[in-house]
Amino acid sequence: ARCFWEIDKLNDAEYYFRHELEMLKQIHGDNHQSTLESMQQLGVFLRDQDKYLEAEELLRYVIAQREMKYDTDKNILAGSLNALGLLLVKTNRIVDAKSLYIRALEIREKEIGFDHPQTVLIRERLAEISIVSTE
Q1: Fewest C-beta atoms under 10 Å: which of 35, 55, 98, 110?
Q2: What sign results for the dihedral spanned by CA atoms 67, 74, 103, 36?
Q3: Do the Cβ atoms of 59 and 87 come closer than 8 Å?
Q4: pLDDT tens digits, residue range 104-132?
């Protein structure tokens, strides 16, 4: 699916993202880590195709499951928070995005360190939306 996405064959990419997700649901169930990761990938793909409603539904489900199944201080949850934060920025919900980025930043600083590139990226995104929200 990712290969089709990279070469801009978006219909094929969406088909394979959805197919993979359905297969994983059948094999592992809705809440298995592999299924949640596939669901997040589909959500990110849909977000980038401006299919915000479905993307948000998927990303919120992933976050809810990861919060219940895993401690909230895990780096994997931070990635999901970041993915939804990007969607909220794209849909001009800056205040909501900011709270997700703050949570993700706290997790990343604790889990992988202050200077890790993933931590720095979230700090930069938080700074960017803070500038936008004060304009």
Answers
A1: 110
A2: negative
A3: yes
A4: 999 999 999 999 999 999 999 999 998 87
Q: pLDDT of the chain along its 135 residues, tens only?
A: 878 888 888 999 999 999 999 999 999 999 999 999 999 999 999 999 999 999 999 999 999 999 987 655 588 999 999 999 999 999 999 999 999 999 999 999 999 999 999 999 999 999 999 887 665
3-state DSSP of the chain: CHHHHHCCCHHHHHHHHHHHHHHHHHHHCCCCHHHHHHHHHHHHHHHHCCCHHHHHHHHHHHHHHHHHHCCCCCHHHHHHHHHHHHHHHHCCCHHHHHHHHHHHHHHHHHHHCCCCHHHHHHHHHHHHHHHHHHC
Instruction: Count Cα neighbours of 126 within 13 Å in the Cβ-side half-sphere.
Output: 17
Do 42 and 54 touch, CB atoms closer than 8 A? no
pTM: 0.89
Q: Are 97 and 85 in contact (CB under 8 A)?
A: yes
